[in-house]
Amino acid sequence: MTNEVLKKVLEEKRAAKRREEAAAEARKAAALSLPDVSEAHREYVNALHESLRYGGQDRRRNAEKLRAAYVEALAEAGYSEEDFLPRVLCPLCNDTGISDGTLCKCTREALVRALGIACDISPEGFALSDFDPADVKGSQAQHLAKLYGRMSAYAEKFPDVNRNVIVCTGKTGTGKTMLATALARTLIRGGHSALVMSATAFNSLMLKCHTSPYSEREGILADVLTAELLVIDDLGTEPRYNNVTCEYLLLVLEERGSKHLSTVVTTNLSPERILQVYNERIYSRLFDKRRSLTLSFDGDDLRLV
Length: 305
Ligand SMILES: [Zn+2]
Fold this sequence. Notes:
Elements: H1 2-32, H2 35-54, H3 57-76, E1 98-99, E2 102-103, H4 105-119, H5 140-157, E3 165-169, H6 176-189, E4 194-198, H7 199-210, H8 214-226, E5 229-235, H9 245-258, E6 262-267, H10 271-277, H11 280-287, E7 292-296
Parallel strand pairs: 3-6, 3-7, 4-5, 5-6
Antiparallel strand pairs: 1-2
Helix pairs in contact: 1-4, 2-3, 5-6, 7-8, 9-11, 10-11
């Protein structure tokens, strides 16, 4: 997904560069269509050719004089020669999008904006670094500070992380969604694709996939299978569809796991309840200690498996 968005960003940069070149050509054509400018330009070009061809100081001076007359005619018509050069929007990369063999600052900024649109999360807003324990009432402040610290370290290492599954468990209102969304936003700011979906929206998308012709399924699943981070929020609140809910959740978890893409699941359900409600394969995908990290949001016991 990130590569697709980046490709579009670079294509847009090239298109913008071509638009600037065309606009410069158009300004030149408009200026040279004015009789005074056109005449002065013709005389200057002729004199320049003569000077270059036959040499001599007089011809050179004449060409210089006629050039000054041409520049003056341009100025009288409200133009300068610089108007005939394409405007350079980014001097760092000369609008190629690449500087010093890597993505230019302008491209990275455009990428973050485009990722925000593609992932439907504004890059502005609450990110991991905005967390302040002072904003949290009660005994949870210390606990949340540890969780945010842990996730900040995760985001810093991303995508070079060992655990690709993070399960945030805890009661409603303990801040699971906020942390997961802050992680997504932090990654988007770092130029990664990160989708946040409610379990209900995810489930509906899976149902849509299941009921669509085969030729359309890949397109429907593309984003959830390729986003660098996928957050499935509030697992357990979605309606249950036979042949869909469990089957597609497992498919997405396995497919993403095989590509080392990270998935965050937030849920009010305990691990034991997840085993009962879903199935053993989903349970082991979510709670495999080698691949997954469980963050408990309840109480003071910080359980980092
Ligand atoms: Zn640039």
